[in-house]
């Protein structure tokens, strides 16, 4: 009886442990994907702000400045939400860099808006070309690429590795249980068979 009960008990305990580990890994993966969706919103709003700078200064959209300010108000809570979910030190550093770049973009944009409204379009254009296109945009693009790379490395891949580790652990435990059961069964047979054979032999002698 114990030959069957002990392995089954171990398998049951392992199954419960695996379920807990897989649930935790899936929760981590779900949180990582949710953060990725929030950052995708952050990225979208930042680039929409940049387009509104161009639209306003070129005269394509007379309401571009107001739209820029509206998007800026929309961006801040999303950016803060994404920062709050950041736990990895590298991700925290990238979040600070992104926040600083956004603040710099705001400063340059408002300065360009003021120059444009003061009828100094050439100076506004030069400011955008030098500061925004020449310095801030390349830094922004590089930071966003680094954030996506870090997200894949530190969050999603980590969750997938946890799931794979749980699967490997389950396989190894099952192999050990099967081998242990075979060994236990053989030992059980070796120890019990002589004890069973003795009474049978005595009964046969008595019958003879």
Oligomer: single chain
* Strand portion: under 5%
> Unreliable segments (pLDDT under 50, ≥5 consecutive)?
none
Number of helical segments?
4
Overall pLDDT level: 80
What's the end-to-end separation, in Å?
Answer: 33 Å
How would you classify the helix and strand content by structural class?
A: mainly alpha
The H-and-E topology, N to C, reads as HHHH
State the shape: rod-shaped
Describe the main β-sheet briefly.
none
Alpha carbon gyration radius: 34 Å
Helical fraction: over 70%
Number of E-state strands: 0
Topology readout:
Blueprint: H1 2-58, H2 64-84, H3 89-117, H4 121-207
Helix pairs in contact: 1-2, 1-3, 1-4, 2-3, 3-4
Throw out a few tags for this protein.
208 residues, mainly alpha
């Amino acid at each position: 009886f114990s030959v069957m009960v002990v392995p089954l008990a171990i398998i049951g305990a392992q199954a419960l442990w695996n379920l807990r580990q897989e649930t935790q890994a899936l929760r981590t993966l779900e949180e990582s994907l949710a953060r990725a969706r929030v950052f995708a919103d952050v990225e979208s709003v930042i680039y929409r702000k940049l387009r509104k700078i161009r639209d306003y200064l070129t005269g394509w959209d007379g309401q571009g400045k107001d739209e820029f300010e509206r998007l800026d108000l929309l961006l801040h809570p999303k950016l803060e939400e994404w920062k709050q979910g950041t736990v990895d030190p590298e991700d925290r550093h990238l979040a600070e860099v992104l926040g600083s770049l956004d603040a710099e973009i705001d400063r340059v944009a408002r300065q360009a808006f003021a120059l444009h409204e003061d009828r100094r379009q050439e100076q506004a254009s030069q400011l955008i070309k030098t500061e925004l296109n020449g310095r801030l945009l390349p830094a922004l693009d590089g930071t966003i690429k680094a954030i996506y790379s870090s997200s894949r490395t530190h969050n999603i891949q980590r969750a997938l590795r946890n799931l794979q580790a749980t699967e490997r652990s389950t396989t190894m435990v099952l192999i050990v249980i099967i081998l242990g059961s075979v060994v236990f069964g053989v030992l059980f047979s070796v120890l019990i068979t002589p004890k069973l054979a003795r009474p049978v032999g005595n009964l046969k002698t008595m019958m003879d």
